[in-house]
Every structure is written in structure tokens, then in C-alpha cells.
Automatic annotation (TrEMBL):
SUPFAM superfamilies: P-loop containing nucleoside triphosphate hydrolases (SSF52540). This is Dephospho-CoA kinase. It is found in: Cytoplasm. ATP binds at residues 11-16. Its main location: cytoplasm. It comes from the Bacteria. Pfam families: CoaE. One of its GO terms (molecular function) is dephospho-CoA kinase activity. Keywords: ATP-binding, Coenzyme A biosynthesis, Cytoplasm, Kinase, Nucleotide-binding, Transferase. CDD domains: DPCK (cd02022).
Amino acid sequence: MIVLGLTGSIGMGKSTTAKMFADAGVPAHDSDETVHRLYSGKAAPLVEAAFPGTTVSGVVDRAKLGARVLGDAAALKTLETIIHPLVRADADAFLARHRAAGAPLVVLDIPLLFETGGRNRVDKVVVVTAPAVVQRARVLARPGMSEEKLAAILAKQVPDAEKRRLADFVIDTGEGMDAARAAVDAIIAELAGR
Ligand SMILES: CC(C)(COP(=O)(O)OP(=O)(O)OC[C@H]1O[C@@H](n2cnc3c(N)ncnc32)[C@H](O)[C@@H]1O)[C@@H](O)C(=O)NCCC(=O)NCCS
Ligand SMILES: Nc1ncnc2c1ncn2[C@@H]1O[C@H](COP(=O)(O)OP(=O)(O)OP(=O)(O)O)[C@@H](O)[C@H]1O
């Protein structure tokens, strides 16, 4: 089974591209979605213990938590120490399930693949990218997002140019959905022979 890591900086199109792989029949695991699920389950008490007041009715409020940790390097590190092992365990279970089922190719969508040593956990890497102006416009259009929050997140991420340099495949999501879908199909053809 080939494990394809999918990464890219904030707003570059990871989730959208992961869904294209899934729609084409390639199982895809989404780290951000896993974090969000954990925040309404087993991670919630751990987060509340570390950052009192960031959960509401037993569920992590991501706006409150983001306000607490983004821009505070030590706090973010503490959060990552709690969350990353749980996400990794979820991804490992996903891999075991699909390996047992005989899947030829699977995708792990890992936002911090290069930042957290994820390169060793995957066979090939696809980086999604877009021009910086497109990225900014996408991210700033989200509710609750601000220039400061974006700057704090970008400061914690390997720069886009460096990610592209380290990639086996690059998909430019600034060229539209059809172009991205064609790029996804070409990668599947190369890696899974179909
Ligand atoms: C700070 C939080 C609460 C903000 O929540 P919010 O709903 O606004 O954002 P969301 O979770 O959808 O993440 C959006 C994007 O932000 C970036 N990002 C998130 N966490 C981090 C981080 N620790 N370092 C760098 N970039 C990050 C990624 O590009 C990610 O795709 C949330 O991102 C979080 O809990 N982060 C810590 C866990 C983590 O490291 N997740 C990312 C990989 S598993
Ligand atoms: N190929 C594409 N063509 C046009 N728009 C796209 C394409 N891919 C993604 N987008 C748009 O870009 C925005 C960000 O996409 P997406 O949520 O997939 O990014 P992400 O990298 O997962 O973001 P985050 O890092 O915040 O989790 C969305 O509005 C999405 O519709």
C-alpha cells in the first residue's frame, strides 16, 4: 500500500483536494477533521485541564482555544503535545484498516507534515499551493479570521516555497477545481496504475 501525504499551508486547499482523492475512490484521512472530532470527545477534558474556560458544555470552543494559543508559542506547544499523539493514533488505525482491506493507495491529509516529522510516515508527498494573494483572500474570508491570527499561524508553518521544494507532486489550486481534479487523477494513475 502506498501512503500519500497531502499537505500545504493554511487555505491552500488540503481539504478540498483530499475530497477529490476520496471521490476518486482513494481513502483519505483528514487531520483537521480528526482534531475537531476529538474536541467534542476524548480531548475535551484534557484541553479544559490545560486551558481552563476553553470548553463549553464539554466541547472545545475552537474560537476560544485559538484566541488562547495562537501567538503564544508555549501554549500552542502544550496543545500540540496533547493533540498530535491522538491524531497520529487515529491515522494509524485508518492505515491498519485500509492495509487489511488491501487498498493500493491511501491519502493522509496532514497540515503539519513537514513541521512535525510526518515525512517519515508517508511514501510520497503532494503539496497543494496557490498564489499568496489567493491564499490570503481565502483565509481572511472565513468567519473569525483576522490578519493577526493568519500571521500567527503562518509564522508556525514551513513557507510555501520550501514545501513545494520538498514535494514529489505539486497541485496549484489557484487554477480552479477542474485543473486540480485532473492533477489528482494523474497522481492516482501514476501511483496506483489506474
Ligand atoms: C488553534 C485551533 C484551535 C484553531 O481552530 P480553527 O478551527 O480556527 O482552525 P482549524 O483547526 O480548522 O485549522 C486550520 C489550519 O490552521 C493551521 N494550524 C492549525 N494548528 C496549527 C499548528 N499547531 N501549527 C501551525 N498551523 C496550524 C493549519 O493550516 C490548519 O489546516 C486549531 O487549529 C487547533 O486546535 N490546533 C492545534 C492542533 C493542531 O496542531 N492541528 C493541526 C494539525 S493536526
Ligand atoms: N482547486 C480549487 N479551485 C478553486 N478553489 C479551491 C480549490 N481548492 C480549494 N479551493 C477553495 O479554497 C478554500 C480553502 O480550501 P480548503 O478548505 O480545502 O483549504 P485547507 O488547506 O484545507 O484549509 P485549512 O488549512 O484552513 O484547513 C475553499 O474556499 C475552497 O473552496
